[in-house]
Known about the structure:
Layout: H1 2-24, E1 36-39, E2 45-50, E3 53-58, E4 64-79, E5 86-90, E6 100-101, E7 120-136, E8 142-150, E9 156-161, E10 165-168, E11 171-174, H2 176-179, E12 199-200, E13 204-209, H3 219-233, E14 243-245, E15 251-253, E16 271-272, E17 284-289, H4 300-317, E18 324-328, E19 335-339, E20 341-343, H5 355-359, H6 361-370
Parallel strand pairs: 11-15, 13-17, 13-20, 14-17
Antiparallel strand pairs: 1-2, 2-9, 3-8, 4-7, 4-8, 5-6, 5-7, 10-11, 12-16, 14-15, 18-19
Amino acid sequence: MRKKLLLNRRAVLMAAGAAAGVATGLVAVPAIGATTPATTTSGARTVRVPRTRAKSFTGAAARTVQAEFPVEHVGVSWTGPRRGASIRLIGQDGSRGAWTALRPVCGAGADGDAGDPAKSVSALVQAGGAAGYELRLPDGATDVRSTAIDTVNGPSTKVATAATVGRIADVEYITRAGWGADESLRFKADGTENSPQAYYPAQVMTVHHTADANGAPDPAATIRSYYYLHAITNDWGDIGYHYLIDAAGLVYEGRYSGTDGIPAHDASGKMVTAFHTSGNNSGNLGIALLGNSNEQPPTDAARRSLVRLLGALSTYHDFDPEAAVTFVNPVNGVSKNVQMINGHRDWLSTECPGTTLYGDLPALRKDAAAELSQPQV
């Protein structure tokens, strides 16, 4: 009976999304920054995507960098202590800004990683077109790497796509093409995928914040920077989250999962494994809110979109958003008792998803439960 109910609920949800997509699949995408959509005469769609420009530096060379292009974001990674890490930006006129603490970004590598995720640190900083930057890292920091990233000002290329907006029931999302994902970043030089898709049944949903500055002026550009940081600098082969949500409440498709299912899933409803809770990724769906929720709660729009997305995905998987469950990783056998909707700090030693958002999880679970679609019998 449960299997029949799940199939009915999934069919209803997919049908609702498909019906909405007929009307909205080719509408203009709001607020996606430098990615500008244009409808073609054939009814297909093209977007102009700025080519990501990036250059990485290691060791001592990573600490003081003058870039050959305007730096919109800086990715920094190192192994060792976290406290005391800071950055200051170098303006185009040569001026130095104030030193600002580096906050580690949320997300961690593959299941079965041998490294200790508590000692491996990475951060992404908005740089606003700086000419370069200087880093201060704590004593004992090793394997230092920094990457100057520009996802705004580079030469643009046309990318053809059927649509830049999709829907999961009544939740509208911006596709990978819509936010300007360069799909070539998923592949190695020899043409093989760096991190081929692996699919398992979803079991739980984990909430994150990205821990960078709030109020990103161009969220799509920020997501493209995270994409480069995760796929290339961290060598994960793709962005680490399944979905992302910006301050305006726009939902973005995250990790690539093929073209035959809703984002993060294949046609059968299994979920693609992403990289957001090291050792606990397979079967664990990750949703990240852009910005930092340690001292400031998410905007009302972002929270509302998070609730609606959690509700839609709960309906799709027949989840009880308020349930306590036992997660069992199908890859490595790791098990843990958690809430169906949980926070990153429930898995690893981290501040993520921020103090205010983590404290709001009980209310989020209740609100997501109220969003569940009625089963059809």
